[in-house]
């Protein structure tokens, strides 16, 4: 997780970005959008830069437009990673914001959503968030999972997955290189219960390409939007 790719192209955080609103769910602040009466929800779990990243919220709005109730929790409690803070480099910051803590804090969020009438829940995780999602996918917390340029996810994690899962990987990714993405695919396809899965490797892109791209770069936008479409299609198929 200490790799520089996790920190590249940091977003300019904006608490007012997006067309939704910020509320509290399951003890966490969260960006929420989409029809409040929908029975289908999608949880988006951010990378180390947190829930105020404008491109992440823009993606949440896109998923919401398809009819899902979308929730982007603040798992970092107002303390996202700040690359300019030399006193808290990533290895220090991560001690306070482990993915194990994120997994535990996701449970009451999910419980709160189910108490409001949500009958099926999908979750997508980006980098740091992908590890939280894969943990949720090992049980019945969620009914569909998507991992986008995951970090910290192991072959053993994938062996334990029970929910339908899509994995979107980058050609240039030191955290989860193509060889590991291929191993994930082999493990999923070898499961005796024939788990519904989708694994795709995106050529020419780097770790973080789905939520930390340059909006002025036409090719980068196209690559990100292709991944967004794959993610949305997966939720439409599985939820």
TrEMBL record:
Domain Dienelactone hydrolase, chain residue ranges per copy: 29-237
Gene3D superfamilies, sorted: alpha/beta hydrolase (3.40.50.1820)
Pfam families in the record: DLH
Span list, region Disordered: 1-20
Record-linked SUPFAM superfamilies: alpha/beta-Hydrolases
Recorded GO MF terms: hydrolase activity
Superkingdom field: Eukaryota
Name of the featured protein: Endo-1,31,4-beta-D-glucanase-like isoform X1
């Amino acid at each position: 997780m200490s790799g520089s790719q996790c920190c590249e192209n940091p977003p300019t955080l904006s608490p007012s970005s997006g067309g939704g609103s910020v509320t509290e769910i399951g003890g966490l602040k969260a960006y929420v959008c989409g029809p409040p009466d929908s029975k289908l929800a999608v949880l988006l779990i951010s990378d180390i830069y947190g829930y105020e990243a404008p491109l992440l919220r823009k993606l949440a709005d896109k998923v919401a437009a398809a009819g899902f109730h979308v929730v982007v929790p603040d798992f970092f409690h107002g303390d996202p990673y700040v690359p300019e803070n030399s006193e808290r480099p990533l290895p220090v910051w991560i001690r306070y914001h482990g993915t194990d803590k994120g997994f535990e804090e996701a449970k009451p969020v999910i419980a709160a959503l189910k108490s409001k009438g949500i009958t099926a829940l999908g979750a997508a995780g980006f980098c740091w968030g992908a590890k939280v999602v894969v943990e949720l996918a090992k049980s019945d917390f969620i009914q569909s999972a998507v991992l986008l340029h995951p970090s910290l996810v192991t072959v053993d994690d994938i062996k334990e997955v029970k929910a339908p899962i899509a994995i979107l990987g980058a050609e240039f990714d030191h955290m989860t290189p193509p060889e590991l993405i291929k191993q994930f695919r082999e493990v999923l396809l070898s499961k005796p219960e024939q788990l519904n899965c989708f694994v795709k490797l995106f050529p020419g892109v780097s770790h973080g390409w789905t939520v930390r791209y340059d909006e002025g770069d036409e090719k980068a936008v196209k690559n990100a939007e292709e991944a967004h479409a794959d993610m949305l299609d997966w939720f439409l198929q599985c939820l």
